[in-house]
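Appendix B, record 7
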Amino acid sequence: MSNSGTPVTSKPQEIVAQPAPVMINQPSQQTQHNPYVNQAMVDPVTAFLRTIKSWSGEGRAQRSEYWFGGIAYSFCIGIAFFILTIPVSFFVMDSGANDTDFVLFLLLMLATVVFIILYIPILSQTMRRLHDAGYSGWFIALGLIPYVGGIILFVFCVLPTQPHPNKYG
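Structure tokens (predicted):
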């Protein structure tokens, strides 16, 4: 209704058909489907599950999978170590007994072993991300260079996906 109280009638819109695409005669070439071009972004849950399952470092991981999976997995590791530090804090607070030193040592060794085991999927996923950018997984050793190694590795992980299949997948 309009402001004057009379009903407003709208004119029906015409539906216009889209023209068919023009086909140009070109030599017939077989085109291969490339799954790495125009990839859809991986959702965070799928990325997290792929990170957990990734223990071998084989294949490729696109940027969204790497960042979503890495952040979610690191968050879960942080929560696990927060929970592991609660018993350690009780032993540290009760430092008067001699037996607590040995138990504290065992708990710290257990935490170190658990951390090393849980860190393997992150290393594997970084190797897969390097494969996706076209670099060898051994480039992960750049992270061992003090000060600049982590920055160089970060730059390699930010690089875009190679649009063509490479020797890593």
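Remarks on this record: The radius of gyration is 28 Å. The CA atoms of residues 127 and 138 lie 8 Å apart.
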